[in-house]
Amino acid sequence: MQKAQVTPEVDISAKQYRLLAEFRYRIREFLHFSEQSSRDQGIEPQQHQLMLAIKGLPSDVRPTISALASRLCIRHHSAVELINRLADRGAVVRRTREEDRREVLVELTPEGEALLQKLSLLHWQQLEASGPELAHALDNVLQRVDEAEVGV
């Protein structure tokens, strides 16, 4: 993830604060939905994120603990704990890689696949309902950034 550079001599207008606040509100609104949906299905939000990370990894990335920790922006030992909890629930399994027995891969079980599919369908429905407002808020923020860069 790329960090933004702070330019202290540039003022932020009241409108820009409102645009940022609206964008942050729309993100938080979706995240709140996501967190509650996960809990309603009996798992913690980060467990849902882990399952989604496993299923949605780029095709050239193996589902190792390190790769998953990186995708979730958490420490290795935190990823291990999430994996342990999901394994205890029967949603994931660990498999030793045949080519390199030191490498452990994490895979969804059929139960984990079913749970992830249910949560993903709920999330798609929520995005269909609230996504336009989120996209509009992002467009407004990006438009203000573009105008600031050209001195408008």
Element layout with pairings:
Layout: H1 14-40, H2 45-56, H3 65-72, H4 76-89, E1 92-96, E2 104-108, H5 110-149
Antiparallel strand pairs: 1-2
Task: Give structural notes.
This protein has 152 residues and is mainly alpha-helical. It has helices at 14-40, 45-56, 65-72, 76-89, 110-149; strands at residues 92-96, 104-108. Strands 1-2 form a two-stranded antiparallel sheet. A hairpin with a 7-residue loop joins strand 1 and strand 2. Helix 1 crosses helix 2 (45-56) and helix 1 packs antiparallel against helix 5. The protein is globular and about 55 Å long. The two termini are 28 Å apart.
Short précis:
With 152 residues, the chain is mainly alpha-helical. Helix content is 66%, strand content 7%. 16% of the residues are buried.
- The parts where pLDDT drops under 50 for at least 5 residues are none
- Superfamily (CATH H level) name: Winged helix-like DNA-binding domain superfamily/Winged helix DNA-binding domain
Assigned CATH class: Mainly Alpha
User: Helix segment count?
Assistant: 5
- Biggest β-sheet strands, sense, barrel: 2 strands, antiparallel
The quaternary state of the protein chains shown equals single chain
